[in-house]
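Progress note, project year one: complex with NDP.
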Amino acid sequence: MENNILGKVVIITGASSGMGEAAAKHLSALGATVVLGARRTDRIERLAMEIQDNGGNALAVAVDVTQREQVKKLVDTAVEKFGSIDVILNNAGIMPLSTMDSLHVDEWDKMIDVNIKGVLNGIAAVLPYMKEQKSGQIINTSSVAGHKVFNGSAVYSATKYAVRALTEGLRMEVKPYNIRTTIVCPGAVRTELLEQITDVNVRQANEAYVGAVGISPDSFARVVAFAISQPEDVDINEIIFRPTSQE
Ligand code: NDP
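Model obtained:
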């Protein structure tokens, strides 16, 4: 059975580590051409080389997803180089958790910029191409924290609820263009995400929790591949997955 991934051009933001990196490796192994976006260019260039050494097809493009022009350039570059854009995985995100009363207002701003505006910038950059092609898939990374709020996750959860809301709105609007939309909501996955938490107590509590129950980023890669691999008339709208031991 054809996997419906083979030959597709997939843009992945946040490809320099964690789940984006795992998705890039897995999708390229299944035959996708992957376009890797992140700010740490040394990491994505190394990953692109590794994928090519394994017989895959990859291109690294520097991008800060908060900068609309840079995201547009990422997508334009992919189209110029590979002729079309089949999938964008808007995955870049940050999670500097803190309780609201500690007033880490700069971190609130950053989460809104990366986790919400970054996703919107990705959508805005691909939509004209996908409408023209009358095909495409927009996959946005939300979270279990986009379904429930934890102590210290108020602003982060707000951004991840927003990702679900805007993706569901988009889903209903893009039907005439044959565009699929998918929300992926991971639970605790072992990545570098906790490193940005500046509140020592919140960071220690989360490190202990994810250290105890967290699963491999490969879990995310398989979920994304499942959503892409469906026949074009099947749209996986949302997937929530957690470690089996997570509450
Ligand atoms: P990582 O910290 O390992 O990866 C985050 C990625 O986002 C990095 O590649 C980073 O690249 C990129 N990124 C951050 N800011 C920007 C920016 N301004 N522009 C471009 N890229 C940026 O964490 P994860 O792999 O865990 O996170 C991936 C997604 O999964 C995030 O959206 C996160 O919120 C979500 N998530 C994670 C969970 C988990 O338990 N790990 C659970 C639920 C959701 P660089 O710094 O090089 O720019």
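The mean pLDDT is 97.
The longest strand covers residues 179-186.
No further modelling is planned for this target in the current period.
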